[in-house]
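Thread title: Can someone regenerate the structure for this chain?

I was given the following input by a collaborator and told the matching structure tokens would be attached. They weren't. Posting the sequence so someone can regenerate them.
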Amino acid sequence: MKKIVVFFFLVAMGAAAGHAQESRQDISISGIGIIEPFIAAPTDVQVSANRGFGALASYRFMLTPTAAVEANYGITYANKIRYLISNTNNYVVNTRTQEISGAFVKSFNYKKWNPFVEGGPTGIVFLPIRNTGTTSLDVKQQTQFGAMYGGGFAYEISPSFDIRGEFRGLVTKVPTFGYSQLETNKWYNIYVPTVGVAYHF
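Best answer:
Regenerated them for you:
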């Protein structure tokens, strides 16, 4: 009887190990920061913003052991974007930013360390929050399209889990929230540092 129990235990362990080796998908949940750069435009509009924080959910499907495709959804709680026009008119928009993106991911395997780079298209929704953090300007929701790029590493803590750290970037036009006087004709390179945990299955 003991031999049968040991036999089935070994079979179960082997099956679990085989499943872990064949994992081709993962999901991850990460905390993110959002850092928007200062913009000085030839239209006499200056744009600045404070830092924001949020979360990112990702799904990754492995095409090969070192290549994958990825889908992402990210959202920030809130951060303020400030527009200064001709050094006189000051507008503040309290903003919740959402990201929907897809990417091709190339990874490099070094035992438990797996560096990777990625890039692809993105859609970014700038959603103004009408509260005391936003001035009386009747700003509107704006969706912009652009590109996402990033590079980071995954550290395997078990066959099913890894920790990921990444520096991501979102490139898009500076939002105007539907107002021509806020136009800069400039591009944003938004920095998004990311740290999270992934589950492989």
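The chain has one domain: 24-200.
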